[in-house]
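Justification of computing resources. Each target in the renewal requires a structure prediction run like the one illustrated here; the chain below, 225 residues long, is used simply to show the kind of job we budget for.
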Amino acid sequence: MACRGCADRCDTVEGVPRVLIVGASRGIGLGLVDVHVRAGWTVDATTRDGSSPIGHPDVTTHRLEVRDRDQLGTLISNLGEPVDRIIHNAGILRAPRSDLMEINAEAPVVVVEALLDARRLSPDGTIAIMTSQMGSRRGRSGSLGDYGDSKAVLNDEFRKRSARWREAGAIAVVIHPGWVRTDMGGRGAAIGVSESVEGIIEVLDGLTVDDHGAFLTWDGRVHPW
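Resulting structure tokens:
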């Protein structure tokens, strides 16, 4: 996989692109670490306890519980130089509604805006926040209503802020990763982690300014809000 999407804006050492993956301990997050490492990216990854993603001792790992402002400040300080791509993958499926809203809807916005305010994204760097098709305002129902509500609020907040994020130099999107066979998605889900992640990376590599503010799917389709 070539670094098509950031080939003209990577400013890390010797032109090697750098990515920050928030929520990388397992599932899609770990898959995103895998594919970036294989593609030659410099990878910074966060986990709640600061442990390294399995199988990747050379990845720089940071401790981050996404609601902890002190840990967020430490992450920003430790990053030092800007990254070329930020992927916010951290989220939960089943919890009290208040926790779902804090972690799924509020934290991604807080984390991204803190990174932008601290100038930890390179000019025209990309931001991807993992959302869900259950966050669409069209026809959402079922036993995961609170989860869907949290993703709908996330999407709403993203849309409110997207113009400001572009002014700060970001090309930002929200992405539905598909129904994926992970601890969250379950064994009966439609696609595997590798298929989802490879699709997400293809989408991210191809992003342009015209895509900023979009709700996209893992396979490159525009999803209705």
